[in-house]
Amino acid sequence: MRAGRHMRVIGIDPGLRNLGWGVIDINGARISHVANGVLHGEGPGLAERLLALFEGLTEIVTCHAPDAAAVEQTFVNRDGAGTLKLGQARGVAMLVPARAGIPVGEYAPNQVKKTVVGVGHADKRQIAHMVRLQLPGVEIAGPDAADALAIALTHAHFSRAGGKLEEALRRASA
């Protein structure tokens, strides 16, 4: 954790072909954009795509040194094989920060949408719009990066609320 109440968070939107990532800084009530992008799982097979995601995300975590990570939970859809592959990409998204000693928070897609947009069934355009409003001047690398920034913003919201709760409990027990 940085000095004072400053915290850097990486949000990760897992995907086998496109893994979105976004880094924000939280300094008290102020939230600012640091960086965002999309990693591409490229290669002839699943193992090579996962390795590309692992190496790319490791480089990003090393470069930006986040204090916390937030990853979107996998939702189960009708395509079992697709869900399983997404779960493997999510495993990489959780492994990289955990390997670096960074705590990882998990958020359901509807929780992210409700936190950032106000409704649990927002579309990608609405998410990107609200991310731009909350991070003025941000240039978003694409829809997956917008989702990752929304995940990081959700973590910022819940970590600040958790800190207030802990502080209130400390004062109440004193």
Task: Give a description of the structure.
Strands 3-2-1-4-5 form a five-stranded mixed beta sheet. Helix content is 51%, strand content 22%. The longest helix has 31 residues, at 143-173. The chain has helices at 46-64, 80-99, 109-116, 124-134, 143-173, and strands at residues 6-13, 18-27, 30-40, 68-72, 104-107. It is globular. The chain has five helices and five strands; from the N terminus they run βββαβαβααα. The chain has 174 residues and is of the alpha/beta class.
Comma- or semicolon-separated keywords:
single chain; 174 residues; alpha/beta; five-stranded mixed beta sheet; 5 strands; 51% helix; globular
How are the SSEs placed, and which strands pair?
Elements lengths: L5 E8 L4 E10 L2 E11 L5 H19 L3 E5 L7 H20 L4 E4 L1 H8 L7 H11 L8 H31 L1
Parallel strand pairs: 1-4, 4-5
Antiparallel strand pairs: 1-2, 2-3
Helix pairs in contact: 1-2, 3-5, 4-5
The fraction of residues in strands falls at 15-25%
* Alpha-beta content class: alpha/beta
Distance between the termini: 25 Å
According to DSSP, the number of beta strands is: 5
Estimate percent helicity: 40-55%
What's the order of the H and E elements? Answer: EEEHEHEHHH
Principal-axes shape call: globular
Largest sheet: 5 strands, mixed
Strand order of the largest sheet: 3-2-1-4-5
By DSSP (H or I, 4+ residues per run), the number of helices equals 5
Mean pLDDT: 89
Radius of gyration, in angstroms, nearest whole number? 16 Å
Low-confidence stretches: none
